[in-house]
Structure formats: C-alpha cells, structure tokens
C-alpha cells in the first residue's frame, strides 16, 4: 500500500472512530436527558377518588345513649365543685372586678367546661346531655322539686303522667326510648342532684 493510501486509510479510520464515539456520547446524553425529564415530570394524577367525609352527625347532635347518664352525673359533680370554688373566690374578692369575675364563673354557661371535662366529652355535647337529661328527669320525677303529686287526685296524676310521657315521646329524636328507660329508676336521684347544683349557684351568689 502506498503512503497516500495509508494516510487515507488512517484518516478514514479516525473519522469512523470519531463518529462512533460521538454517537455513543449523544446516546448517553439523550438517555440522561430523558431520565431527567422523567424525574421532573409531574406524577400522573391519582384516579382513585378521595375518601368522602363521614356522613355521621356531629357529636353534639348525635342522639344520646345510656352511657350519657353517667356522664351527666359526673359532669354535675364537677360543676358543683366549680360553683363552690367560685363562691370561695367571691367571698375573698378585693375589688368589683374580682366580684364580677367570681359571679360569672359560677354561671351555668361557664361551669359547662368543667362538666364536659369530667364527662369526657366536648362542651357542646355536654350541654346537650345536661339539658336533655335534666328535662327527662323532670318528666319522670315531677314530684321532685315540682308539683306535690300527693295533693292530686288519681285522675289528675294519670293525666299528668300521660302528659309527661307525651313530652318524652317528642324528645325521642335526641333521647331514644332506651335512654329514657335506663334513666327511669334513677330519675329522682339525678333530679335531686340537678336541683342541688341549681341551688348552689343561687346560694354562692348570695341570692
């Protein structure tokens, strides 16, 4: 082979090598670019629908259960303690502001927090329990702190009983029959406790 041919062959070999190397580099670059693009691309949207919010009623509006009777009793005990504490603060008040603060602290709306904490429920739920069961206890035991039923005739007592049962029927959406029946044997006891709490508020306030 002549020198010219050797030179041309060498140049062709070098050119082929450059093309091959360039092709490999380009392929690597394209692969790297593709990987980066894939990494940066947003993930495909999840086609699974999100869990729908619970359709259950809020705790404050859920019908009462027999367990709420015990919660009410615990709550009333805690409220009574809060009233006594506020009464002590009232007696030791040094200013008008102290007096007002103590008197406000013994109000029903302000002792509800203590009752709710003892009952283990939120304040709105406790208020529902307290008001509903206080009403039920009043219908079941009207002779406690109410009308002296011994002064009524049998016909009048029966009429009162039917009227109270009708009131309980209207409350079934909040206080189901099972709760009423669970409260029935304890109605007088818990009615007395409720009235004791109300009396303590008045006494602590000096009424």
Structure, explained:
The chain is an all-alpha fold. Helix content is 70%, strand content 0%. Helix 2 (67-91) runs antiparallel to helix 3, helix 2 (67-91) packs across helix 4 and helix 2 packs across helix 5. It is globular. Residues 1-58 have low confidence and may be disordered.
Which class best fits the helix and strand makeup?
A: mainly alpha
- The SSE order reads HHHHHHHH
Uncertain segments of ≥5 residues (pLDDT<50)? 1-58
Number of helices: 8
Number of strands: 0
What share of residues is helical?
A: over 70%
Dominant shape? globular
What is the straight-line distance between the termini? 130 Å
Largest sheet: none
Portion of residues in beta strands equals under 5%
Computed over alpha carbons, the radius of gyration is 40 Å
Name the average pLDDT.
Answer: 79
Core attributes:
disordered N terminus
Write the layout of secondary structure elements.
Layout lengths: L2 H38 L26 H25 L4 H10 L2 H12 L3 H18 L13 H17 L6 H7 L3 H18 L3
Helix pairs in contact: 2-3, 2-4, 2-5, 2-8, 4-5, 5-8
Summarize the structure.
With 207 residues, the chain is mainly alpha-helical. It contains eight helices and no strands.
């Amino acid at each position: 082979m002549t020198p010219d041919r050797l030179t041309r062959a060498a140049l062709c070999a070098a050119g082929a090598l450059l093309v091959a190397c360039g092709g490999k580099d380009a392929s690597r670059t394209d692969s790297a670019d593709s990987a980066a693009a894939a990494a940066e691309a947003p993930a495909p949207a999840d086609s699974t629908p999100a869990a729908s919010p619970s359709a259950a009623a809020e705790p404050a509006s859920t019908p009462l259960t027999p367990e709420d009777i015990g919660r009410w009793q615990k709550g009333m005990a805690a409220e009574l303690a809060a009233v006594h504490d506020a009464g002590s603060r009232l007696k030791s008040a040094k200013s008008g502001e102290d007096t007002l603060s103590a008197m406000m602290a013994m109000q029903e709306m302000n002792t509800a927090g203590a009752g709710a904490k003892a009952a283990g429920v939120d304040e709105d739920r406790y208020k529902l329990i307290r008001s509903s069961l206080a009403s039920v206890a009043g219908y079941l035991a009207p002779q406690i702190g109410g009308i002296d039923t011994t002064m009524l005739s049998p016909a009048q007592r029966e009429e009162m009983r039917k009227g109270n049962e009708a009131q309980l029927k209207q409350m079934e959406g909040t206080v189901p029959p099972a709760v009423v029946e669970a409260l029935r044997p304890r109605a007088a006891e818990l009615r007395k406790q409720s009235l004791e709490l109300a009396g303590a508020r008045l006494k602590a306030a000096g009424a």
